[in-house]
Amino acid sequence: MNKVARLIEFAGPGAIRITNEEIPFPGFGEVLVKMKTAGLNHVEKMIMYGRFPIKPELSAHIGFEGAGIIEHLGLGVNGFQTGDEVCIIPNMAFDKYGVIGNYIVVPSTSLVKKPSLINWQEASAIWMGFGTAYQGLVNAGGLQKNADQTVLISAASSSVGFPAIQIAKLHGAQVIATSRTLEKAESLKEMGADYVVATSDEKWTDQIADITSGKGFDIAFDPITGPFTTQLADASGFGAIIVSYGTLSMSETSLPLFPMLMKALKFTGIDSGHHLLGNPDRFQIARRHIVKHLENGNYKLKIDSTFPFTKVKQAYQRLESGNQIGKIIINIEQE
User: Fold this and answer.
1) Can you tell me the distance from the alpha carbon of 256 to that of 267, in angstroms, rounded to the nearest whole number?
2) pLDDT tens for residues 300-312?
3) Residue 52 in contact with residue 46, Cβ under 8 Å?
4) Between the N and C ends of the chain, which has fewer C-beta atoms within 10 Å?
5) pTM metric for this prediction
6) Domain 2-126+302-331 in CATH: superfamily?
């Protein structure tokens, strides 16, 4: 039988159940993958509580990033063969597909070959993190090589924040990482952050001014939004770009119009699944860059913790806690 994790109601990780099902068969353009690992992502918290604009039909498959071995090809699939080791990139329709199961069906357009020097846990920690960071900083944020830019990365200890620090540093930027407290400062500096600022300090924006000699940052990469957006605008430099890729605050976001007018600020948002991972031409450029620097050691993958498949609830509870430093991985491979 095939064990599959499903969400039975929009009530968070406590509503996850592992069910016994038949092994599915891939349709046209799909593949059957024997799963090894899956990586968890913040947006799944919103989905699990029914707070995302698109709601899957219950009971719903969960998870949309992972890695495994192709077991069977559906009709119309080119470029892959049975036995290929693959990463599943999170560009699929999450209301139709999910990756946390012994055997799962996904579109072939959601597969890339697993880099040979990457282990199975790392293979589930690449594409949402590095893909989102690359899209947000380079394509949307205007990060350039050796352009003397200052980049502020908020919620920087997340599975997207760590790649963002590394991408910014490789481009020669000065990096300011923010976190609620300084508890994770050492880990953030190990990943390359030049400065770490605790946003629990009411005067944290003054620290940004001190670090930048009053100039402010050039690019902010932010998953928080809500009232935090106004604080970012206060700490920004003239002509800065604020790139949003999430809504962790779960609050309404008001446009800080006065700073926007006075500083000529630009605000933009990204959805990596559509804007990068779902765009073949743009993704190939990012893919070559990311794999090259993973394999030569310039980029490193940060794994927070691993959980067995039987502890899938606990893995998502860890994600919900916000205490993780890096990527949370579920080991799915059958014993």
Assistant:
1) 10
2) 999 999 999 999 9
3) yes
4) C
5) 0.92
6) Medium-chain alcohol dehydrogenases, catalytic domain (3.90.180.10)
